[in-house]
Amino acid sequence: MMDTKTVKSISELGEFGLISYLTDNIVLKNSSTIKGIGDDAAVLSYPADRRIVVTTDLLTEGIHFNLLYVPLLHLGYKAVMVNLSDVFAMNARPRQITVSIALSSRFDTPAVSELYEGIRMACDKHGVDIVGGDTSSSRSGLHISITAIGEADKDKLVYRDGANVNDLICVSGDLGGAYMGLQLLEREKEVLKANPVGKPQLDGYSYILQRQLKPEARGDIITLLDALGIRPSSMLDISDGLSSELLHICKASNVGCSIYEEKIPMDSQTKQFAQELNINPLVAALNGGEDYELLFTVPLADYEKIKNDPDITIIGHITPPDKGANLITALGGTPIPLQAQGWRHL
Amino acid sequence: MMDTKTVKSISELGEFGLISYLTDNIVLKNSSTIKGIGDDAAVLSYPADRRIVVTTDLLTEGIHFNLLYVPLLHLGYKAVMVNLSDVFAMNARPRQITVSIALSSRFDTPAVSELYEGIRMACDKHGVDIVGGDTSSSRSGLHISITAIGEADKDKLVYRDGANVNDLICVSGDLGGAYMGLQLLEREKEVLKANPVGKPQLDGYSYILQRQLKPEARGDIITLLDALGIRPSSMLDISDGLSSELLHICKASNVGCSIYEEKIPMDSQTKQFAQELNINPLVAALNGGEDYELLFTVPLADYEKIKNDPDITIIGHITPPDKGANLITALGGTPIPLQAQGWRHL
């Protein structure tokens, strides 16, 4: 437990003091990290046969997260995972992040510490070093910008433009859970507004809540594919819903696709809560977003290697471009063109 | 001139559309950039004998900039320069940046284009590739997060902890101008509040205005030092005022310093406007910040190489740590301990 009596306020600490307070005991873990926080820039070193990947995200309060129901610890964790997920989606390994935070005066030192604790938990989980950043105030709300840097063998990088006709389309884990978790949190927020002393009814839905509040970037799938001797022909992470991501692959690779409704993996809680809200759970999987699972294609020849893996589901196959991108429904097999209706923060 | 009639609104474009609109015609310039915008992450490749430097900044409206008097074009330019300045301060060369922008609904497509135009001008000036980013909305104000990546020969990197006793302390350019430019803009803002149809009185102060609105990262000094065969023993860029930066060097290098009031380079406009406001211009130089000049130390043996360069001023020397960090005044030579009173955004 932190002794709040001895914790200085943010204005007492100042920018440099706050950064020290948050980062002084960071132990660097990666040989590619030569110098972390404390100079004008971090210094990294990678062998020449490695490719370096860089990805960045800016999360803004009221748009990407709602602090009414997202604990700061989870927010920090998720802000990192979102970026690590993009690194894994290149078939690469994350090694470093930088963290910039701007916060309004309503946040105190313990609050920032909690946020940072979540950031550090996510880094520790994937052996990532925090090597730089920036902390300042904002006129309103909390803003977190994270840049993640990773590495891959140059022959193992996977882009989104390599899918070929007849490749199998695969996803890790299950889909739609994060979206249904968000719906649950939104519902309870409304209930709480109406009855501030009521207790949120979240029992039986811990899985979809976790999918929304504490997503896990699928580094384990990258390890698994490597162990299976599989290099996907294309890959990305599902941040905006399956439809939108599939359309990215089809556009970049100049191919079409057919996926099968009954193949799309969904957890029983996702289906159950969708039923409770009279939502088709398929909509959550196709357009919900924030699942941070991996969507990838593999040559048909890899079918035997992949078919029995409990963490990977084959949901369809790549077609010639003139066939379009379609969902084949369970009832009657009618093809329905996929549409991008993912998260639009604009 | 952009034909605004054909420009779609940001909500019509959507996130992906806006990113395409802003970045579609980017031509990558660096051999270290393998893949720019368009996948989950950018892909870079550096030779093994190069060190990679990474730095990041998050600029927030109302804290770091005021759009009442900062044109978006200049803001974009400055947001990049601030980061490139940190790369140069490592004696490194910037190669790539990522750009994340969150903006409220009061910004339209031409406004974002103007901001982006400034970003691109700054990149073009220093041969830097825009390789990634993120565009989303914010509940209030504009937020820009830029990460810059650069490279240096591993034997040429300069940290802030290498200053030695008797080293000469040098600065590039002149100091205090950016701060006085800000004071001028603030004064005119107040005048304009009182008389909205009045014209701002900015004549004769174009230099200090430019120092505030369009700072230039000193890549030319890095080139010059290289040409002179000088590797500074320590270096950083002056973003928070000379005092604060000198104290960083003293702390990191475990040394003291003496700098001389009459040696501190200041432009005549800086002095003139300070006089007009009854401010000691020295305060602007020591504590004003945002000059983005380079502060560095060199061995005494380099004196002959550096003494006649018009862009570099020797302002003092490094002392043993027990002497402290002092300003020697012009009148009487009294040493005054330096204090960090730089920008504090918290």
What does this protein structure show overall?
2 copies of one chain form a homodimer. By secondary structure, chain A is an alpha+beta fold. The first copy, chain A, folds into 2 domains: 14-153, PurM-like, N-terminal domain (60s Ribosomal Protein L30, Chain: A), CATH 3.30.1330; 168-337, PurM-like C-terminal domain (Phosphoribosyl-aminoimidazole Synthetase, Chain A, domain 2, Alpha-Beta Complex), CATH 3.90.650. The first copy, chain A, has helices at residues 10-23, 72-88, 109-125, 177-194, 206-213, 219-227, 242-253, 268-276, 281-287, 303-306; strands at residues 33-35, 42-44, 50-60, 93-103, 129-137, 142-153, 168-172, 234-237, 256-260, 294-298, 312-319, 325-328, 335-337. In chain A, the strands form 3 sheets. Chain A has a 7-stranded mixed sheet, sandwiched between helices. Chain A has a 4-stranded mixed sheet with strand order 3-6-4-5. A two-stranded antiparallel sheet of chain A has the order 1-2. Chain A is globular, with a radius of gyration of 21 Å. The two termini of chain A are 40 Å apart. Strand 3 of chain A pairs antiparallel with strand 2 of chain B.
In short:
2 copies of one chain form a homodimer. The first copy, chain A, has helices at residues 10-23, 72-88, 109-125, 177-194, 206-213, 219-227, 242-253, 268-276, 281-287, 303-306, and strands at 33-35, 42-44, 50-60, 93-103, 129-137, 142-153, 168-172, 234-237, 256-260, 294-298, 312-319, 325-328, 335-337.
Task: Please name the defining characteristics of this protein.
homodimer; 346 residues; alpha+beta; 60s Ribosomal Protein L30, Chain: A; Phosphoribosyl-aminoimidazole Synthetase, Chain A, domain 2; 2 domains; seven-stranded mixed sheet; 10 helices; disordered N terminus
